[in-house]
Design brief:
Shape: globular
Distance between the termini: 29 Å
Strand content: 25-35%
Mean pLDDT: 89
Order of helices and strands: EEEEEEEE
Helix content: under 10%
Strand order of the largest sheet: 1-4-3-2
Number of domains: 1
Radius of gyration: 15 Å
Number of helices: 0
Number of strands: 8
Largest sheet: 4 strands, antiparallel
Amino acid sequence: MHDVAVWFKRSQDRIYSATAPLAEMEISSRLTAGTHRIEIPPEFRDLEELLLVGPCPAASNDDAACAVLVLHPKAGEITVLPQTWYTANKCDIGYQWITRVTRDPQTGRIIGGGIRISNFELTEDGMGLERLIDESH
């Protein structure tokens, strides 16, 4: 079991930890959609996969405002999946936001949730909204 703390470089948010970090790495928010080679510290290389949510620079109100980042430390790769459904024209950016994602072990699809956003399942390509998940069942 690994604990991973993530924060945005320009953020003023502070994170409490009982121990100092074992390693640090930076991931650019300017990476384009697709898979990229990335330098991974050795301390992360035991992880099979790590899913993160990060901001995307949106040029228009129709562009994705965030991306799911699929980190494969053993391969030294990261795949950027812009969330085409999470745009300023479709969501209230800053009032609603995605906070967590994981992979459904049965389907392999990415599922997630957020603040003022219903739980959701993404399309097979990981970029579109397949469906909202009814929390009552």
